[in-house]
Design brief:
With 377 residues, the protein is of the alpha/beta class. It has 2 domains: 138 residues, NAD(P)-binding Rossmann-like Domain (Rossmann fold), CATH 3.40.50; 232 residues, 2-Layer Sandwich (Dihydrodipicolinate Reductase, domain 2), CATH 3.30.360.10. It is 37% helix and 24% strand. It has 13 helices and 14 strands. Helix 7 packs across helix 9, helix 9 packs across helix 12 and helix 12 crosses helix 13.
Length: 377
């Protein structure tokens, strides 16, 4: 097993999560460099994690530290250009979500991967717990039966002060609200469990928060396998939970957690007359490792060792980003959106705001909110 030289770009809060989990990877990874535009923050991060190479720009890091893998922990609007620079230099990329702010930007990755011979992967760590692997294997199989109905809810809470950082809550810097920045982890896991989606009908609104994007979206999603799912992405929910429920022919699969799960966060219920087969099938699976960055890092190294495509690679990450784009497109046009419909020339291909349509719809919603508040007064 090879030891991979790793660099972290961006030294904010999520970078510490990456560094701590890299330390847990043992001999599989060596953290050789970090990069940030703020020298003081860079040095504090480097000292805290024992990082020898410290750079104020990505180009110097790539040229001098020569990492095998770069972890992008920068604000969302920087991800795509930094990923392309790394890939063209022949360096693999693991990017925090969202991988890009639009499908148009994301589709630039393909040429960069070919040019540099490197691969792109997105941080979707919920895919990598043992229970997720077990559920993916059993859903649709003989013991659990085919999936029929599902729900996927990211019910989180963020106060107005959350948007004090200037890049948060803007279409140009973050790409959207909870649909892009928060719920994307959970509905990525739903796609991982159920496979490709086919059509979405959605609404989105700015109910209460001081943001220029939505603070709530709700969607009805039909999957290729026939499953019908509801989905809510909220930053308005004081009791925070992330929930998935999938009702199959013979079993209900449920996950309830916040920011990460252990095996105990999953509940498996057999239909009447099928309890024993369902419980036995679940108990027969390896169910030790929970979700988290470390699990994804190790899976990435294993894939590189084997010369295999990276897990959570560009193709599957694009499917998740496309669903986010379709939720916005449906919410702001009032029409269902089919997978594959958002192509070059479509207003939502170049951005989740749909050439300003989203901002207009949300502004109208805000006017209605003001009218409601005036009526209450």
């Amino acid at each position: 097993m090879r030891t991979y030289k790793v660099a972290i770009v961006g030294t904010g809060g999520i970078a510490a999560v990456h560094a701590d989990n890299l330390a847990r990877a043992g001999a599989r990874a060596e953290l050789v460099a970090a990069c940030d535009v703020d020298q003081g923050r860079l040095d504090a991060f480097g000292d805290a994690h024992g990082i020898p190479g410290r750079y104020l720009n990505l180009a110097d890091l790539l040229a001098e530290a020569k990492p095998d893998i770069v972890h992008l922990c920068t604000p969302p609007m920087l991800h795509i250009d930094q990923a392309i620079a790394c890939l063209e230099a022949g360096v693999h990329v693991l990017s925090e979500k969202p991988p890009a702010l639009s499908l148009a930007d994301f589709d630039r990755l393909e040429r960069a991967q070919v040019k540099g011979g490197a691969q792109f992967s997105c941080v979707f760590q919920h895919r990598f717990g043992d229970a997720s692997a077990a559920a993916q294997q059993l859903i649709g199989g003989a013991e659990f039966g085919r999936p029929l109905v599902a729900r996927c809810d990211t019910l989180w809470y963020r106060p107005d002060s959350y948007w004090d950082l200037p890049w948060r809550g803007t279409w140009s810097a973050e790409g959207g609200g909870p649909t892009m920045g928060h719920g994307i982890h959970q509905f990525d896991l739903l796609l991982h469990l159920l496979g490709p989606w086919e059509e979405v009908t959605a609404i989105a609104g700015r109910q209460a928060r001081a943001t220029s994007t939505e603070d709530l979206s709700a969607a009805l999603v039909r999957f290729r396998n026939g499953t019908v799912a509801t989905m809510i992405n909220s930053l308005l929910s004081p009791r925070e939970t992330s929930d998935i429920r999938i009702d199959c022919e013979f079993a209900t699969v449920e996950l309830s957690h916040l920011y990460g799960y252990a095996t105990g966060n999953w509940t498996i219920t057999g239909a009447p007359g099928h309890e024993e087969q369902v419980a036995g099938a679940w108990a027969a699976q390896p169910l030790e490792r929970g979700s988290g960055h470390n699990a994804q890092f190790l899976a990435m190294y294993d894939a590189l060792d084997a010369g295999s495509p990276l897990p959570a690679g560009a193709d599957s990450a694009r499917q998740t980003l496309e669903l986010a784009a379709a939720i916005y497109a449906s919410a702001f046009t009032g029409q269902p959106v089919r997978r594959g419909a958002i192509v070059p020339g479509h207003p939502f291909y170049g951005g989740m705001d749909g050439d300003g349509l989203g901002s207009k719809v949300l502004a109208a919603t805000a006017l209605n909110d003001n009218a409601f508040n005036s009526a209450r007064a």
